[in-house]
Design a protein that fits this description.
Distance between the termini: 13 Å
InterPro entries: DUF7531
Number of helices: 9
Oligomer: single chain
Pfam families: DUF7531
Strand content: 5-15%
Number of strands: 9
Helix content: 10-25%
Length: 307
């Protein structure tokens, strides 16, 4: 894909606070995320396991959806949860949550936390950004690494293959310029939709009775380490094509997440403590080098070295 990413990172930051017409694309159709994370990157089971093995279990976060009814108006950004029919649901915290049978359905993605970023030339502003985004260069700190998710590597190919609007086009509409330089849909891999996504990208929590309070905390953006570990464990223990979970493998992953102390997870907590309100000026905020590189984050090369 030919895209102009310099000074953008529109797919990695929640830029709604600086837009005069913020997109609501993730809340179209019957299945609405319970969280308010913008452009969550859905990871496959193998990718989740890779992050956990690499010590980055604390940089992962789950997403559930409210159960929906009727024909879908979804725009293709849900990675395969949409089936265009009434949802089964499981009640948690008084909310009907979308489910696979009697098990709550969920994704696992990359955490976002407030960072001082300046996309589109707006000046340093507190915006929620991917745990792995360098807030100065707006480049990914794991780009090209074995952990780099397929969803990111092939973006916006999946959207084009599904004939859905890309984040590049949303940025063009809001701020002008040319971001999507190649509008022909490429051959893409990992486009898991429908039943083939079950156990590989869409997971099913086997114990909804253990999730009291999770819906409220997910909506408030206040999931605990134990909350995140529970979902990540289920994802790692899942079997492709099935809602069954290997409990021994899930338990090992839960423990690894709770023990994780990565630079990404630690920096997310520090940024949250340092941040002003989302959308506020961040000109006096510390640098990514002071908060992330000091914790062990790899530096990014800068755009002058990118062809």
């Amino acid at each position: 894909m030919k895209v102009n990413c310099e000074g953008c990172a529109g797919c990695c930051v929640d830029w709604r606070p600086v837009s005069s017409a913020p997109s609501d694309h993730e809340r179209r159709g019957p299945r609405r995320p319970l969280d308010d994370v913008y452009n969550l990157v859905p990871l496959t089971r193998d990718e989740v396991a890779g992050f956990v093995r690499g010590g980055f279990g604390d940089a992962l976060v789950p997403r559930m959806w409210a159960a929906g009814e009727g024909e879908s108006e979804d725009d293709g950004d849900d990675g395969g949860t949409d089936r265009g029919e009434s949802d089964p649901g499981v009640e948690i915290d008084g909310v009907e949550v979308a489910a696979l049978g009697d098990r709550p359905a969920f994704f696992v993605g990359l955490r976002k936390s407030p960072k001082p970023v300046s996309p589109f030339g707006v000046g340093r502003t507190w915006m929620d950004a991917c745990a792995f985004l360098d807030p100065e260069t707006l480049q990914c700190r794991i780009h090209g690494d074995d952990l780099y998710p397929d969803e990111c590597a092939e973006y916006p190919g999946h959207n084009l293959a599904l004939e859905k609007q890309t984040e590049c086009e949303r940025v063009e509409d809001a701020f002008g310029g040319d971001r999507l330089l190649d509008r022909e849909a490429p051959d893409v891999s990992g486009l898991l939709l429908g039943p083939q996504a079950v156990g590989s990208k869409v997971f099913a929590h086997p114990d909804p009775g253990s999730l009291d309070g999770v819906v409220d905390r997910m909506r408030a953006g206040e999931l605990t380490d134990a909350d995140r570990a529970s979902f990540v464990g289920v994802a790692v223990g899942s079997h492709p094509g099935s809602v069954e979970v290997d409990e021994a493998r899930a338990a090992d992953a839960r423990e690894a997440v709770l023990d994780a102390d990565s630079w990404a997870g630690g920096a997310a907590g520090e940024w949250a403590e340092l941040a002003g309100a989302v959308g506020e000026d961040a000109s006096d905020a510390p640098s990514g080098e002071a908060v992330e590189v000091a914790r062990g984050a790899p530096e990014t090369p800068g755009w002058e070295s990118v062809e």
